[in-house]
Amino acid sequence: MRTSIVCVAILSLALFGCAKKVDLDAARNAIRQADSDWAGTIAAKDADAFTAAMTSDAVLMAPNTPVVNGSDAIHAWVAQNMAMPGFSVVWTPTGADVGSSGDLGYSIGTYVYQMTMPDGSTMTDTGKYATVWKKQADGAWKVAVDIFNSDIPMMTPAMGDSTGAGGQ
Question: Is the pTM of this model over 0.85?
Fold first, then answer.
């Protein structure tokens, strides 16, 4: 009986000693840095680098468009947007957190999107985003899910916007 208790105690200590210790502050900082680096790919209008920062099965959920699934479809969507006249997106991470296991986290922040309209005017949209990050086997963080939406109220003529401009 005494031998069993000692064995259980030793086994318990061994298991707790082998438990993965995660530096959550370092992981949060790594996600913030990955998010900032990813924002740089948009500023550089580099669709390849933008997509490389994402998992191959990533999901992009942009406003007013169907869900975009997978790196090939996301690359095509981003390249099309980057080709628009006056295209610019600047986003700023305002927070990040990571799960206790250290392999999944998220960032949140704000963005400003601009493009030139056919009449030469500039359309500006401001909003917020949430991005889910997944830690890779090599320790790098990659985007698994990105979702963003506008702060500008959607207006239609039926809602009182006589211009029909949709609040833009």
Answer: no
Q: Which residues contact 140 (CB under 8 A, 6 or more apart)?
A: 34
Q: How far is CA 98 from CA 26, 32, 86, 90, 127, in A?
A: 10, 11, 35, 24, 23
Domains observed in the chain: 21-150 (3.10.450.50)
- Residue 145's φ and ψ, nearest 5 degrees, are -145, 135
- Reading phi first (left if > 0) and then psi (alpha if -120 to 50, else beta), residue 120 is in left
86 close to 114: Cβ distance less than 8 angstroms: yes
Q: In the chain, helix, strand, coil percent, each to 5?
A: 35, 35, 30
**Could you say which residues of the chain have pLDDT below 50?**
6-9, 11-18, 159, 161-168
pLDDT digits over 37-82, tens only? 999 999 999 999 999 999 999 999 999 899 999 999 999 999 999 9
